[in-house]
Specification:
The protein is of the alpha/beta class and about 350 residues long. It contains 14 helices and 13 strands. Helix content is about 30%, strand content about 20%.
């Protein structure tokens, strides 16, 4: 028996699908993942899936290649958290006992099990709710409530039955030699969306005032940004682009705390089990994409009528002010980083 998840969204969305992956794997079935290019091997190395196929947005041939391979198989269930017409057509010709997704007015032609997507729930639980075989889990999701203040706050721990934290593979000797023996923190200053980035000046001032070692983390494309933030600070190291995804969570697992924008860094920290402080600007917690971690906090500027300005953020602030980020101070951020780093000192 085998199952398939088709989820071609960004890294953070895939990380929030881990509770679903865990439930499926607990059945002892073989799990295949269709993901965006560059993400599949990460979930394979975490032991959450058995096989993956990767697709590239805008490249029809990559979709066709994956489809040709998958059409040769029969699945017990196909789970589709990614709501798009392209994805629906992708799974239409697959053989499966059940094809499961969220209910939309048009998608009855593609899925035989459709559920209401509850936007009042966190994304990790919305995805987990696609798993219909466990009445206990469904009841727990139904009863789950969160209260957000709109101010800086430490968030409630996530429930044990919906963890994204994973057991990590043993760290390599090469990576072990890079990780400091003294306490350190990881900082992710980048994001795919420009307006989701806290200011360079804010990160620079935070790094200047922080007394311990700092690893600036991110993709190869964020190396220049990290170098600007590092400046001439000797206690700050630019590690952007130096680690694979699995190495990144291994490094994070040894850090005291992670500081991130509302982007992939916060979700990788949750996978590693590392306390995380997230800076929220154009987006809000009510969207459901909070850091899904046992120990997490958010920093945000309250009282702006323009928040939120969109589900994902924008390339440029619609008003031209970017007040949601510019008004957040290094002192606000440092206060919560200090608070969370005291939860579990590491080294």
């Amino acid at each position: 028996m085998s199952a398939l998840i088709v989820h071609t969204a960004f890294l953070g969305d895939l990380c929030l699908s881990i509770p679903l992956m865990k439930k499926i794997k607990a059945e002892g079935v073989s799990l295949t993942l269709v993901s965006r290019k560059g993400l599949g091997s990460f979930f394979l190395e975490l032991g959450l899936i058995d096989q993956f196929f990767e697709v590239t947005k805008g490249d029809a041939s990559s979709y066709q290649k994956a489809l040709n391979a998958l059409k040769q198989r029969t699945f017990a269930e196909v789970y589709v958290p990614h709501e798009s017409l392209r994805t629906a057509f992708f799974i239409k010709s697959l053989q499966a006992s059940h094809k499961i997704s969220y209910r939309s007015w048009w998608n009855f032609l593609f899925y035989d099990v459709r559920i209401r997507r509850d936007f009042k729930k966190p994304e990790a639980l919305r995805v987990l709710e696609l798993y219909r075989k466990d009445p206990f889990i469904l009841e727990q999701i139904s009863n789950y409530r969160e209260v957000f203040s709109g101010k800086d706050q430490v968030l409630d721990p996530v429930p044990d039955w919906a963890q994204v934290q994973c057991q990590l593979p043993a760290i390599s000797s090469q990576l072990h030699s890079i990780v400091p023996s003294a306490p350190f923190i990881c900082v992710f200053p980048g994001s795919v969306w420009e307006t989701k980035k806290w200011t360079e000046e804010g990160f620079q001032k935070f790094c200047l005032s922080w007394k311990g070692q700092i690893f600036l983390m991110g993709s190869p494309a964020e190396k220049e940004l990290c170098e600007k933030i590092k400046g001439g600070l000797s206690h700050v190291q630019n590690m952007a682009g130096k680690f694979s995804l699995i190495e990144t969570v291994q490094v994070l697992s040894r850090a005291q705390v992670c500081l991130s924008n509302d982007s992939g860094g916060q979700h990788l920290a949750a996978v590693a089990g590392t306390p995380v402080v997230t800076v929220f600007g154009p987006t809000v917690l009510e969207f459901g994409f909070r850091p899904w971690s046992q120990k997490s906090a958010v920093v945000q500027y309250e009282g702006l009528s323009c928040r939120p300005c969109g589900k994902h953020g924008h390339k440029k602030c619609p008003l031209g002010t970017h007040d949601c980020m510019k008004r957040i101070t290094p002192e606000q951020v440092e206060k919560l980083v200090l608070e969370l780093s005291s939860y579990s000192p590491r080294g």
